[in-house]
Every structure is written in C-alpha cells, then in structure tokens.
Write a structure and sequence with these properties.
The complex is a heterodimer of chains A (395) and B (79).
Chain A lengths: L9 H15 L3 E12 L5 E6 L4 E6 L16 E11 L4 E11 L4 H16 L16 E6 L5 H12 L4 E6 L7 H15 L4 E6 L13 H9 L4 E5 L7 H5 L2 E3 L2 H8 L3 H35 L1 H48 L2 H6 L4 E4 L2 E2 L11 E6 L2 E6 L2
Parallel strand pairs in A: 3-5, 6-7, 6-8, 8-9, 9-10
Antiparallel strand pairs in A: 1-2, 1-4, 2-3, 4-5, 11-12, 11-13, 13-14
Chain B lengths: L10 H17 L4 H24 L3 E7 L5 E5 L4
Antiparallel strand pairs in B: 1-2
The chains are: A alpha/beta (395), B alpha+beta (79).
C-alpha cells in the first residue's frame, strides 16, 4: 500500500513558493510598458508592466512613491528595479518597485518634457497670466537657501542698485527631499505675510537633480497661483526649469534677478533731477513768457488806443486852445487898433483943437450957430475962443 | 490722481505724480495759479524722492514663524 503523499495546505505551499520566489528574485531590473496605472488614495501606486508576450503586476509603496520623478501614465516604456514578492491572500506575485525610470532617453529629461507639455496645454505659461513687475518695489521677498553665496550676491546687487528697499528673506531648502514642499510653503508664506511687491525664488547652478525641485509640478502651480509676482532665478544661464516657464519673469541667474527687480538708483535719481529741472525750467519759461506777453499787451495798438485817443484829444484841445487864444489876441489887436483909430478920429473931431488953430465958435444960448442966416441984428451971442468966451451983439 | 502727503505716498506713486506734473506743466495749458501750485508740489515731490533715494539703506529681515504659526520678522545683519 502506497502512502499517499502528505497533503500540503494552500497556505503551506504558498509560503514555500513565496520563500523560493522572494529569495531568488531579490534584485531585478525589468523593462516593459506601463498599463492600468493607478494611484490609490492610500498613496500606493499600482500598475501592470507588460510586453507583447506577458504581464507582471507592479506596486510602488507610498514610502517609495517619490521614486517616481515623472508623471507616469499608460503606454510609457519604463525600466524598473525591484524585487518579486508574493501576495499570499491572492496567490499572486508582483514586483515591488524601488525605482523607476523612463526607458531610452534620460528619464528626468522626459519627465521635464512631459510636465512642460502638460502645463503648457493647461495655459500656465501663457503670457496673459504674467503679472507685471512693479517698477519701484519697496518690499522684496527672497526665497533661497540660508547657506551659500546666493543670498549674499543678491543683497550686494540690490544694495548697490537701489538700496531704498526692504528685503524679506524666507529661507528654504533648495534641493533634495522636501525642497519642493519648502519652496511651495515659502511662496505661500510670502503671499500671506502681506506687502511684498515682488519675490525672487532662486538658487545657484547645479545638476539636473539638484535643480529638480524647480521642475516639480507643485512648485510650478504655487508660482502660477501666487498673487505676488514671482521672478524665477535658477542656476546658470543654460538651465531652464518648469518654474522658469511659469514665473512672471525668468532671470538667468539669482544675480540677474536682483538686477531685474530694481531700477538703477543713479538712473532714477537722474530721472528725478530731470523732472525737477524740467518743472523749474517750464515754470521759469512760463513766467518769462507771461511777462513778455504783458509787456507786449501794454505796447499793443488796441491796448494803447484809449491813451492814444486821449493824447490826440488833448493835443486837439491844445491846438484849439492855441488857435483860440491866437484868434482872440488877433481879434483883440484888431479891436484895439480900430478903437485907436476911432479914438484918433474922435480926437481929431474935438472942437477945442479947431479953436486952438484960430477958429472960433458962435454960440447962442447953449447952441452952436452953424450958419450966418440963423442970425438977426441985435441977437446976443457968445464967441468962443480956445481960451475963453466973449459975449457979443450982432450989429 | 490727487496729491497726497508725500510722506505717505509710495515711491512709485510719488514718481508717477511727478511725471504727471511735468507732463501737464510742459503742455502749458494749466492756468498760471494752478501751475504755481503744481510747481511747488513738484519741487516737494522731487525733493522727497531724492532724499529717499540718497539716504535709504537696505533693510534685511528674515521671515520666520513663532510657535503659534504667526509671522515674525527678525532683523538680520547684512552679511
């Protein structure tokens, strides 16, 4: 009688398989295509890795979710590393992913391109969303690392160019785990603190991994949603990040950002002095013109017409006066001379003068006897001589 | 834009007002009495701007939060 082999329980065989499987496939690098990509609310990520002939379940535990540096989606060709595990409850094996990268070209580059396309499609880079920078910010926010020369360099430039400002420095981690989060919070802080006219978010140059926080979707959205205009200032000139595209202004370096946010004090001073000069000049010129104008008015014909008329009248009066007096004196002279001649004539008629020449006058009573026929014999008359009267009688 | 106390205006407001005054005065259509007032305002504003530009020193403050999460500004010596 053959003994039946001892039956194993499902659990027992599953444990054996699990042990065998998990000890044999501890470090795998597998390439395939993503399908059924799902991010569970728990934070774990599930997908299926497949190729033309087979498929394999994959899981990324929440604790490893940051290993996914790009936005994974169905159809992407990836290379994953991990180990096989067996989920006893279902009797299913799966690969537990420890890292994942895009197959082919540099995964970060692809992730970058992917996010860039996605946000561009959403309109996050559109020029109409760019907020203008204030010309004369009085309060400037800076988010950067508390260590390193970046802050120092920016302050030097700000101090040299336009020191009439207040800088609110919000230190933040600029690379590695937590950097994106810290930057997002920093942008939020500078928005909430109030009175910030413009902010610079920046760091010095580095590898693409060092700069990666600036390619984080959360950072991009925080910049986009910021009420305060944001100037991105990442790395050296050749480095473009997603933050650069979404920022209101992209500065090639932190130092350049400091140059861009403030005017040059000397230029502004020159400007103000120009204004002062112009105001002064305009006013002086205006006053000179007004004075000239008044003077001109005083000399104009119409303004002077009344005076002129007056002068003319007065001249006329003078003339008339002169005329009058000369006419009068002429008249008087005439009168005078005619009265004189009358006088002479009258004087010539004086009988006394005739008597003096030897003539006599015959009077009868008080009347002059002008004719011999008036006299009769015996009339008593008086003969008047120049020196006396002789009573006489006609014979 | 009406004139405010130059002390209370932001630098940008002062400059904008100054530009406005210059433009108006240059156009020369302002009555004489008004232009004299504008002239005086302009001189005051430009003086205030120049003073601010030549005397101010950069103030640096570090933003941090107290235990209740309220913002604090810590004066920081310029490094």
């Amino acid at each position: 009688m053959t003994l039946e082999p001892l039956a194993l329980t499902v659990t027992e065989i599953t444990r054996r398989i699990k042990h065998s499987l998990e000890s044999s496939f501890t470090s795998l690098v597998i390439q395939g295509e993503i399908s059924n990509f799902k991010r569970h609310t728990s934070g774990h990520i599930y997908f299926t890795l497949k190729d033309e002939g087979a498929q394999l379940s994959a899981v990324v535990w929440r604790s490893r979710a940051h290993a996914l540096t790009f936005q994974a989606e169905d159809g992407m060709k990836v290379v994953i590393t991990g180990r096989l595990t067996l989920y006893e409850v279902r009797g299913a094996y799966q690969i537990e992913v420890s890292s994942i990268r895009l197959a082919g070209i540099g995964e970060l580059q692809v992730a970058f391109e992917y996010l860039k396309r996605k946000l561009a499609a959403e309109g996050l880079f559109d020029p109409e969303h760019k907020k203008p920078l204030p010309y004369y910010p009085e309060r400037i926010g800076i988010i950067t690392s508390p260590t390193g020369a970046v802050l120092h360099d920016m302050l030097n430039i700000l101090r040299r160019r336009f020191p009439a400002i207040e800088v609110i420095f919000r230190p933040a981690t600029m690379q590695g785990a937590g950097a994106a989060n810290d930057i997002v919070n920093g942008i939020d802080d500078l928005n909430r603190v109030g009175g910030i006219d413009v902010m610079i978010v920046g760091r010095g140059g580095g590898s693409i991994e060092d700069l990666w926080a600036f390619n984080d979707e959360r950072v991009a959205r925080a910049i986009f949603n910021s009420e305060v205009p944001v100037v991105s200032a990442v790395g050296h000139e050749i480095d473009f990040t997603i933050a650069d595209f979404v920022a209101d202004l992209r500065a090639p370096t932190p130092s350049a950002a400091a140059e861009l946010v403030v005017r040059d004090r000397n230029a502004v001073l020159a400007n103000v002095r120009d204004y002062w000069y112009t105001i002064h000049e305009t006013m002086t010129t205006m006053l000179i013109h007004r004075k000239k104008h008044v003077r001109h008015l005083l000399q104009t014909y119409s303004f002077n017409k009344p005076i002129d008329l007056l002068r003319q009248y007065s001249q006329r009066v003078d003339e008339l006066d002169r005329g009058l007096s000369s006419a009068m004196s002429h008249r008087l002279a005439l009168l005078h001379s005619s009265s004189q001649s009358l006088h002479h004539r009258i004087a010539a008629l004086d009988p006394a003068l005739v008597l003096k020449r030897g003539y006599t006058m015959v009077l009868r009573g008080n009347e002059v006897v002008g004719s011999a026929t008036e006299l009769d014999t015996g009339d008593k008359i008086e003969i008047k001589f120049s020196d006396g009267v002789v009573p006489s009688k006609i014979l | 834009m009406t004139s405010k106390n130059p002390q209370k205006q932001t630098f940008e407001e002062s400059l904008l007002r100054l530009e406005e005054l210059v433009t108006k005065l240059e156009q020369g259509e302002v009555p004489l009495e008004d232009s004299i007032k504008m002239y005086e305002e302009g001189l005051t504003l430009s003086k205030a701007c120049i003073t601010k530009l030549t005397q101010a020193e950069l103030k640096l403050k570090k933003l941090s939060k107290d235990i209740d999460g309220n913002f604090q500004f810590l004066d920081q010596e310029a490094e």
